[in-house]
Design a protein that fits this description.
Blueprint lengths: L2 H22 L1 E3 H8 L3 H13 L3 E4 L2 E4 L9 H4 L4 H11 L8 E4 L3 H7 L9 E4 L2 H10 L3 E4 L4 E2 L4 E2 L1 H8 L4 E6 L3 E3 L3 E4 L2 H12 L1 E7 L11 E4 L6 E5 L4 H9 L3 E5 L7
Parallel strand pairs: 4-5, 4-9, 5-6, 9-12, 12-14, 14-15
Antiparallel strand pairs: 1-3, 2-3, 7-8, 10-11, 11-13
Helix pairs in contact: 2-3, 5-6, 8-9
């Protein structure tokens, strides 16, 4: 088949993909393959091109809408995204923790990977709003665990709201480990949820040291609600996919940037 003719046939499919993503918020490669009766390689090529042209945001196994700044993947949808990068980031983050610390872990899949490394400590207090983190630590470690109460965000497995915020504001932490949806030099750290934003802001305020755990796909992007300037965190821990220009600019602003390589997991 002539290559030009193939491209003409692909145009309506790509337009339909963008419409589906914007309507549904998220689509998977498998769903698109079934809907259009084409191969995964074809769909991945379409998504790559649409992402490069700013029509959507590629994810592991699919795509999400760029038009919906308030759209947020739930915990299950986030679980397997960039898992190797998240584990590498966690391996660097755990080196910032010492016996005797009182730390708070923000809710998120990267902080959950960090929680899985805390069994090595014999004298550690971990505070969290994240229910899976709390349950995992209670079953698998001897650390002291404190869960922050409050209304539970359905499908996100964490507490939030005024009760959680009031409790956090009465506590002091040695170190906070934060999750994020977007990190930009100009607009700082952001998340789709206003309730989450005020909680994250309090975590920074109530901690002596704060560490931002963000895989490179979060860098250079903004979400709905900003909760801190990038300079309000002591260290940004990201992965080797981070763009040099972003890292250099953050460092020029005084942020300590640590790049987690996959070798960090073996150390």
């Amino acid at each position: 088949m002539d290559h030009t003719y193939q491209n003409l046939l692909a145009l309506p499919r790509k337009q339909a993909i963008v419409e589906m993503v914007n309507k549904q918020g998220i689509v998977t490669v498998n769903d698109l393959c079934e809907y259009f009766s084409v191969s995964p390689a074809t769909i991945r090529s379409d998504l790559r091109e649409l992402s490069e042209n700013g029509f959507l945001e590629r994810t592991h196994g699919g795509a999400v809408s760029r038009q919906q700044s308030m759209f947020e993947l739930n915990t299950q949808q986030k679980k397997d995204q960039s898992i190797a990068e998240k584990r590498a980031i966690a391996a660097v983050a755990v080196k910032q923790i010492s016996n005797g610390d009182t730390i708070i872990l923000d809710t998120g899949t990267t902080t959950f990977e960090l929680a899985k490394l805390l069994g090595r400590f014999t004298n550690l207090t971990v505070v969290t709003t994240d229910l899976p983190i709390c349950m995992w630590l209670e079953v698998n470690t001897d650390v002291n665990v404190i869960v922050i109460g409050g209304p539970v965000r359905h499908n996100f497995h964490c507490t939030s709201g005024i009760t959680a915020l009031s409790t956090i504001n009465e506590m002091r932490f040695d170190k906070a480990f934060l999750a994020v949806n977007g990190v930009s030099i100009e607009n700082g750290l952001s998340t789709p949820s206003l309730d989450s934003a005020v909680v994250k802001k309090a975590l920074i305020k109530q901690s002596k040291h704060s560490f931002l755990l963000a895989d490179s796909k979060k860098l250079g992007h903004d979400s709905f609600s900003t909760f801190a300037k990038i300079t309000e965190v002591e260290m940004l821990i990201t992965d080797t996919g981070a763009q040099d220009a972003f890292v250099l600019r953050a460092q020029e602003m005084g942020v300590d940037v640590s790049i987690a390589s996959f070798e960090a997991m073996a150390q």
